[in-house]
Fold:
Amino acid sequence: MAGAHKVEMKLEVLVIPVSDVDRAAQFYEGLGWRKDADFRAEGRRLLQFTPPGSPGSIIFGTRASPAAPGSAQFNHLVVEDVEAARAELVARGIKVSEVFHDVAGGYNPFDPAARASGPDPQRRSYLSFVSFKDPDGNVWLLQEVTSRLPGRIEAEATSFADASDLAAAMKRAETAHGEHEKRLGHRDEDWPSWYAAYMAAEQHGAAPPA
Structure:
């Protein structure tokens, strides 16, 4: 199959099992998620919500899933700053955990006994979390990701979810470029090219420009 065209298969929807559709709708609206659809027909109801900046959505509704309500566990929501994201949820009245990381310094956000308080001490990407539940007990994880692992992004594609995502990437590039200019010992006249190379490399998980 070498060289064969790959059919795109985009993960766009997760089905969340809930017991009370009205209660779930109120909760996810309270999170600040966009309500895309609310279909009602023949005694059934189906809703779709999308988290801010996300290309994927969730759906739930009457008889929308054979799974038991509350059985959706540890779906990940990626954020640039886990502490800021937690603060926003708290301001919205959502009950959330403290920020935590794996006590052994690795990746194990699922076992409460393996959690240590606070973000990863080195603030490494992928290793700082917050958890919260919807009214049925479906568990969500906020995961802080500031740079991607190699292979996470298609080599030919560089994209940002929204303006705030792009702005955050530019701020990180600005900080890194400041260190670059210190090493140079003078102003980098071609800073736009350096910014572009840095931001693309960060997304692709590649080495940043020297």
